[in-house]
Give the backbone structure.
Amino acid sequence: VQLQESGPGLVKPSQTLSLTCTVSGGSITTNYYYWNWIRQPPGKGLEWMGAIPYSGNTYYSPSLKSRTSISRDNAKNTVALQMNSLKPEDAAVYFCNMGVWGNNYWGQGTQVTVSS
């Protein structure tokens, strides 16, 4: 399974970030596939943002839940992340990740800068 993140590299404060994870080599609705969005701010560790597993339910980090939405497009085989009211501290490398049976698959990540 291959994952590829895409989206704008630069977002202004207070605006909305929209990222897409395009998946190839497997269907996003395959049983037990668990799709995550994870980010890493500069100089910091990985932060789990939320997930949409094969069931289609969504789960979010409590600290980001009010600003984050994860969805999927089965026809396009993509998983999307939206985060609104962006702040400078949201600048990070954003990763799409898939976990299944203890294995993890990662996209290469996409750098997001928050600046006016």
Notes: The chain is about 0% helix and 55% strand. The two ends are 36 Å apart (CA to CA). Residues 72 and 79 are 4 Å apart (CA to CA).
